[in-house]
Amino acid sequence: MFLKSRWHSSRIGCEATLARWGETGQPVLVFPTAGGDAEEIERFHMIRVLEPLLAAGKIKVYSCDSVGGRAWFDKSTSPEHRMYMQHQFHQFVKHEVVPAIHRDCRNDALGIWTAGASIGAFHAAAMVCRFPDLFHKALSMSGTYDLMRWNEGQATDFFKVSSPLFFVPHLEGRHLDILRTRYIHIVTGEGKWENIGESWKLANVLGTQKIPNFVDSWGPDWDHDWVTWRAMMPRYLGEWTKEA
Questions:
Q1: In the chain, pLDDT over 70 holds for what percent of residues?
Q2: Radius of gyration of the chain (CA)
Q3: What is the pTM of this model?
């Protein structure tokens, strides 16, 4: 079953869309690629390859507009504004998207899994790292994690609290204790437009803090492309739902 809701968010200053596929099962929030919207994963046939898991009631898939990704590459705005919007997007997810998912699942305590490719992989990992009380597991595919290479100037405080590469090394106390019970799967190809170095950069930061993670390379025959991600996501979500 497909449902879509739309509302104005003061946090991101625009209309926001949340789409849902499936009726029961583990909630999975899929973040779009840089300029994608909530229905990108359907247009690129990701929902089609996830249909067996959806039909079996193993997962419910949610996706929201990539407002943070769009803002990050909007060169008509200042670098400081782009970094601020990255933070605001994460706050929008925490305070608006998560409660909407919990209401839909009728369970306010249900841990959510995240997934995404390219910049969506960044958001998937960042959500678990920032809010481990809400998000329990991430599938980050073909990720780009060092976003500052696309932005001028110095990282602001708003960005530092949004990027795991910046804030994870400084975590301590209860936040870190909870995060050490979560898991981030960092999977990538090594074909065209892929950069496995990005995956290792994130993994090294997580590993130093003893946060469970694993870098999984599919090798040089797999490119930075939807063909790759359509092969990856059903495989891992299928394995995880068997374990759950």
A1: 98
A2: 17
A3: 0.96
